[in-house]
Each structure stands twice: as C-alpha cells, then as structure tokens.
Amino acid sequence: MAKDENFDASVRSRLRELRLDKGLTLEELAARANIDTSTLSRLESGKRRLALDHLPSLADALGVRVDDLLPRRRVIDPRIKPVAREFDGLTVWPLSGKGAAGGLEAMKMRIHPSRNQPPEGELPVHEGHHWFYVLDGTMRLILGDEDFEVKPGEAVEFSTWTPHWFGTVDGPVDLLAILGPEGERIHFHET
Q1: Nearest alpha carbon to residue 127 among 169, 173, 159
Q2: CA–CA distance from 133 to each of 80, 105, 117, 180 (Å)?
Q3: 110 versus 74: which is more confidently predicted?
C-alpha cells in the first residue's frame, strides 16, 4: 500500500509543480481540464484519490504528456563493463548483458596470430547463426569446403550447421561478433 501512496503523492506533487510552473490557478486549470475546482484542489492535496482517468485531461490542460505527470523512474546504469576472457587463441569482451536480444550475445573479439591453422579432423557444427564484422586485420573463415579471407569493413553471416572455423591470415584480427547462445557456449566455454 505504501508504494501506491508514494506514487499518488509523487503524481500530486508533479501536478501542482506543473500548474505553478505554467502560472495557472486551481480555477484556471480546473476549467481547462473540465473538472470541478474543488475536485482539483482535493486531488492536489491528497484528500481525494487520483484516478487514472483524470490524467489525460489534466495533462492536456497543462500542455504536457501524461508521462510528464508520472514519477520519473530511476534509470539503471546501462553501461556494460566487459571483462576479457582468453582461450584458444582468442580474447573476448562481452558487449551485451545475459538474456539481451533474444539470447543473442554481442562481443568484441581479438583473434591472436597463433590461431592460424584449423584443427585436425572435422570442423565443428552446431545449432545457430554467427555474424562477424572485421574491424582490423584479415580473418580466415572456413565454411564447409570453402576458404575465405574477410578483410576490414567486411561482414559475414552464416549458419553454424555448416562445418566452420575462423582464425587469422597473417596477424591479429579485431572483430565484432553476434552469436546465438549455442555458438557462444561451444566456442568460448568448451575447451
């Protein structure tokens, strides 16, 4: 119940603040909003409970959006503070929170020069899609029987049901990646 009372008090306070900022008396605002002056007075003072159907006419009369009458929500810090992980010739910085974008994970990656040869045997296959955008360096991408060089400014997108591997051609590669949860788990958590 205290939460509802705080909400009402905040809306009442905001209503009064906006009315005074606009230089309107109770009578002037009540006339513009087509409500009784005594009703508006009781709403502002908390002697009458504020109903949601009051908000549109009051906001309209004040020349503001209904949102402007509602309490401002505390904004949570949206910044992601990536912590680098290193393994298998890669350094990875997560750029999205868990569960963001329908389970897709955005990350910055550095492929180290030591990751320049595909593994012996069959290349990995798993559920999902990968998307890479090369920022710097030349990435080597093997998809099935095809061998590609992906240069800075180029992007690739592919189904991970195709056997695949990525590495470097002749030096480090910096890239942005978007991977599904299965690809993120396969490439970056299994050794």
Answers
A1: 159
A2: 20, 14, 20, 15
A3: 110
Beta strands in the chain (DSSP E): 85-87, 90-94, 105-111, 129-136, 139-143, 146-150, 155-159, 164-168, 173-179
Quick one: pLDDT at residue 179?
Answer: 86
- CATH code at position 104: 2.60.120.10
Torsion of CA 11, 16, 21, 24, to 10 degrees: 130
CATH of the domain at 65: 1.10.260.40
H or E segment and range at residue 188: helix 181-189
Q: What is the pLDDT of residues 30-55, one digit of tens each?
A: 999 999 999 889 888 888 887 778 88
C-alpha atoms less than 13 angstroms from C-alpha of 172 in its C-beta half-sphere: 7
Is residue 173 a contact partner of residue 180, using CB atoms and an 8 Å limit? no
CB 167 within 8 A of CB 115: yes
CB-CB neighbours of 119 under 10 Å:
10
What pLDDT does 182 receive?
A: 60
Residues 150 and 54 sit within 8 Å (Cβ to Cβ): no
Alpha carbon distance 10, 71 (integer Å):
6
Radius of gyration of the chain (CA): 29
